[in-house]
Amino acid sequence: MIKATHLSYTFGSYWALKDITFTLGKGEFLFLSGPSGAGKSTLLKLLYSGLPLQRGDVWIAGFSLNSLKNSQIPLLRRQVSVVFQDFKIMPNRSVRDNIALPLEIRGLAPLHIERRVKAVAKALKIEEKLKNCCGSLSGGEQQRVAVARSFVVNPQVLLADEPTGNLDPDLSLRLMDLFMQFQSYGTTVIFATHSHELLKRHPSARLMRIEQGMVTYASWPGALLYRRADMDMGGVT
Ligand code: ADP
Ligand code: MG
User: Fold this and answer.
1) How far apart are CA 186 and CA 1, in angstroms?
2) What lines the ligand 1 site, CB under 6 Å?
3) Domains, the chain, ordered by start
4) Confidence band (pLDDT; 50, 70, 90) for 203?
5) Looking at residue 166, what is its pLDDT?
6) How many A from CA of 41 to the centre of ligand 2?
7) 23-27, 100-104, 142-146: which has the minimum mean pLDDT?
8) Distance (Å, rounded) from C-alpha 175 to C-alpha 148?
9) At residue 23, does pLDDT exceed 50?
10) Which atom of ligand 1 is nearest to the CA of 35?
11) Which of 15, 33, 42 maximizes ligand 1 atoms within 8 Å of its Cβ, making it the mutation to test the pocket?
């Protein structure tokens, strides 16, 4: 579902990512851990084409990002959905409107939209709040709305960039459990976090740690650890 090979990225002369290589299959759940500034957000941005590739190759949800045209980015985003830390929900609109937005943008039939919104709201236990205005919800509920909106399009891949960053520990755990549920729908999930508590809770999930842009630990054979020698031989200096 995701195959990234020799992915590097620089901001000016600063190496934000160095030679990242990993593969993830359908329905697999990966914790992307690492301290603040390690390169987690940069890696996720490359995967959803929020940043252009500089070095390396990415295959994701059937798309080769190396040959992706700008006009294909909306197609990619149908299959690769993102949840941000700062929710990006519309506070003046109802829960229903917020969740339905991606489906309405796609011009789906109203009946289909209402059915899908209800099903996802039920799965995330916010169906009682569908008519409420998002601004009146608690932080945890707003986060559920954001997750529901990312999931409502039935993406093949869900990328979450520290979605629990602003939540208290109890809500964080509950939110992460929701993401684990998505596995059972066959969705491939990458969940970036610097919280050790969350990692401990789900020891069966794959874990990849990055520090200073390099993979320093991987719990499965699908990811390669950064090796200085390879970089030198590969001409990345
Ligand atoms: P993380 O998400 O793990 O906290 P980021 O991927 O956001 O890390 O950042 C990795 C490094 O790249 C950091 O040192 C950060 O300061 C730097 N960086 C991120 N975005 C930019 C940018 N737009 N311009 C310059 N440097 C950046
Ligand atoms: Mg980040």
Assistant:
1) 11
2) 11, 14, 16, 34, 36-42
3) 2-235 (3.40.50.300)
4) confident
5) 67
6) 4
7) 142-146
8) 11
9) yes
10) 3
11) 42
